[in-house]
Amino acid sequence: MIKERRDPKSFGFLMALFLVLVGCLVGCDHGSLGLRGGSVEGYVVDSRTLVGIASVYVTATSEEDGEDTAVATKYTTTDSNGKYSFSSLRSNVWKLTFSKTGYTPIDSKASDSISVAVVNGENIFLPRVEMVQNFTNQYVRVKGVLRDSINGNTITYGNTNIAFGNTSFSNRLPTELASGFDVPSSVGAIKVIISVEGYKTLTIALDNLVNDYDLGTISLTPETYQIVGRWTNAPGWVVSAAPTATIIARSGSNVVSRTTSVVGDGDQAFALENIPRGTSVSIEVELLGYRMNSPITVYPNSDFQGTIYQNFDLKNNFSAITRDVRIIYMSSTISSGDRVGAYCEQTGTRWPEVTVTNPSGLTLGTPEVVDLGTQALPTGFDFVGYMLEDSSGTHTATGVKINDDGSEAQIVTIK
Hints:
Elements: H1 8-29, E1 38-46, E2 57-62, E3 73-77, E4 83-89, E5 92-99, E6 114-118, E7 123-125, E8 129-131, E9 139-148, E10 160-164, E11 167-172, H2 176-179, E12 181-184, E13 190-196, E14 202-206, E15 213-220, E16 224-232, H3 236-241, E17 244-251, E18 254-262, E19 270-276, E20 281-286, E21 290-292, E22 296-298, E23 307-313, E24 318-320, E25 322-330, E26 339-344, E27 350-355, E28 369-378, E29 381-390, E30 393-402, E31 410-414
């Protein structure tokens, strides 16, 4: 029998093929062929808003594994929602770094950097990465419109200073804020201080200045002065009646201040307050029984702040509203020779005395009705009564009110 002989060349080929297969298996364990690699994914968000950041540059770098495996590096960017992903990463420990203009980068040495052990065949979802905006050398535009809180007009003149935190803009026009100022971006509370000549300084607190900001319409309160008025030459009957006057200060057609005041005993002063500094005003008064001869105008100095004193003289600044009052005396006991007269207790107005006589040449006897004539009296006040005296005593008409200034005489009958 002939023995079978082995071909040395065939044996060597089989051995080489075996070694290649072993190498392939080892290589697959390390993911070098990409057949059994792992993947990772995650999100990058803004640390302040927690909104995803687009176009962040993400780098994944593998560590050396001590087996002469070369360090590998892969790159990607986040999508519009801040999502990123890496696929076909070989089994190893990978470090991820993140960078984008306007944000503080997260490098491999940062405390919040990410290291992940990739396992073949697995997808790993990584924790959210929060990047902090870096506002160095970044600016936002802040604008607004300044209006006068009294008249509602846009403020167009007056030296203006505006401070945004530590950044100040001095010697400006108030209208410049409408086009806006470029202010360094900042995170955290910031105060905007607006100072316009002739107006009270206003402070606005903002949470931050990281984006362009419109302050909208900003109302500024003018610096003000007051007018202290005093009633003079008020008749006693007006003081006793203690009417309430309405006092109005106008600048043009705008009412800038108003108040009320009782014309009575004691301190009769009143104040018109919060009149814009440098504004001239025309003062009008509504007072029971009186008309103003003309409005009283006050002219302050343009830089004046304080108090102006002004008298309101009922004798010189006002005219009493009057009406003719006709007094008629009626009595069945009147006798010839009686002396009849009348007067108003409040104003002291007197009617001429009349001596009653029998009509000459007639036998009708003494008349029972005597017309004392008319006198002008102030209207709008409730006078207690009109007194009349004759030989039989005193007669009074009580509760009579001259309540308007009609064209015809008001008749008061005393019996």
